[in-house]
């Protein structure tokens, strides 16, 4: 049983570019949440998807957008990248009806130069 | 609003000794409380949770945590530390009144270093 998988593992972009990160949830999970973790900091909630809709959103600008597909996988898109967007981006999956326990992927390390 | 405080950036302990990683929380209602561990360049791994019931919660890898409502604390403990326990530990809280979606607030993390 595969856990949460994220791709790519590492990514280097330049300012102003756009990036798409991908996440496949753990088998049996239908809810995906995205977090940004800057170096040495705690994870910050970006948004959560269930039934292909954004259900909740943290304090992130509209440059951050997402999508959930019918197979529950999800994408995180960031437009007009800034240096400050450099971070580890974590995907977490859960069951909507049992969502007190999150399973995290290993993350995508994004570097913006 | 909900918040978590982990007052120690780093905890050092000798292998074989007991360890404690501290966490205090603030919520408007009753809390769900969690501990996660993060190894270098990896995502967070769930250790244990407190929902209701017994104040002493047992989790993975021999860890346990004690919920103390009067002190609003949820300290992580282990009777005998291992070098392999060295990692970053995050406490998280969610107010039970948050509704159907689970959005926890994480503490800033405590780096546990276990010396041989």
Largest sheet of chain A: 7 strands, mixed
Percent of sequence in beta strands of chain A: over 45%
How many E strands of chain A?
11
Instruction: Bin the helical content of chain B.
Output: under 10%
- Give the count of helical stretches of chain A: 0
Could you state the order of secondary-structure elements of chain B as H and E? EEEEEEEEEEEE
Shape of chain A: globular
The rounded Rg of chain A comes to 13 Å
CATH superfamily of chain B: Immunoglobulins
Shape descriptor of chain B: globular
Distance between the termini of chain A: 37 Å
CATH fold annotation of chain A? Immunoglobulin-like
CA gyration radius of chain B, whole angstroms: 14 Å
Q: Pairing-aware structural class of the strands and helices of chain B?
A: mainly beta
Mean pLDDT of chain A: 94
CATH class term of chain A: Mainly Beta
End-to-end Cα distance of chain B: 41 Å
Helix fraction of chain A by DSSP (H/I, runs of at least 4): under 10%
Largest Cβ-defined interface = A-B, 28 and 22 residues
Average pLDDT reading of chain B? 91
Structure description:
The complex is a heterodimer of chains A (113) and B (116). With 113 residues, chain A is an all-beta fold. Chain A has a single domain (5-112), classed as Immunoglobulin-like. Helix content of chain A is 0%, strand content 56%. Chain A has strands at residues 5-7, 10-13, 19-24, 31-37, 44-50, 53-57, 64-68, 74-78, 87-95, 98-104, 108-112. In chain A, strand 5 (44-50) and strand 6 (53-57) form a beta hairpin. The mean pLDDT of chain A is 94. Chain B has 116 residues and is mainly β. Chain B has a single domain (3-115), classed as Immunoglobulins (Immunoglobulin-like, Sandwich), CATH 2.60.40. Chain B has strands at residues 3-5, 10-14, 19-21, 24-26, 31-38, 44-50, 56-58, 64-68, 73-78, 87-95, 105-106, 110-115. In chain B, the strands form 3 sheets. In chain B, strands 2, 5, 6, 10, 11 and 12 form a 6-stranded mixed beta sheet that branches. A 4-stranded antiparallel beta sheet of chain B has the order 3-9-8-7, with no helix packed on it. In chain B, a hairpin with a 5-residue loop joins strand 5 (31-38) and strand 6 (44-50). In chain B, 36% of the residues are buried. The model of chain B has no long low-confidence stretch (mean pLDDT 91). The interface between A and B is medium-sized, with 28 and 22 residues.
């Amino acid at each position: 049983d595969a856990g949460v998988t994220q791709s790519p593992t590492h990514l280097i972009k330049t300012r102003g570019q756009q990036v798409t990160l991908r996440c496949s949830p753990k088998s049996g999970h239908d809810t995906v949440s995205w977090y940004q973790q800057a170096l040495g900091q705690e994870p910050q909630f970006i948004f959560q998807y269930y039934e292909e809709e954004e259900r909740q959103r943290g304090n992130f600008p509209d440059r951050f957008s997402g999508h959930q597909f019918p197979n529950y996988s999800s994408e995180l898109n960031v437009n007009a990248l800034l240096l400050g967007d450099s971070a580890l981006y974590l995907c977490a999956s859960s069951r909507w009806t049992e969502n007190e326990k999150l399973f995290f992927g290993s993350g995508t390390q994004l570097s913006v130069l | 609003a909900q918040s978590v405080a982990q007052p120690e950036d780093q905890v050092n302990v000798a292998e074989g000794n007991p360890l404690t990683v501290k966490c205090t929380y603030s919520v408007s209602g009753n809390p769900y409380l969690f501990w996660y561990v993060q190894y270098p360049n990896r995502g967070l791994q769930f250790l244990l949770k407190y929902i209701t019931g017994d104040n002493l919660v047992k989790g993975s890898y021999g860890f346990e945590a004690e919920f103390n409502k009067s002190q609003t604390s949820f300290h992580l403990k282990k009777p005998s530390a291992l070098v392999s326990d060295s990692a970053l530990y995050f406490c998280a809280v969610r107010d039970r009144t948050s509704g159907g979606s689970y959005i926890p607030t994480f503490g800033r993390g405590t780096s546990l270093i276990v010396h041989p």
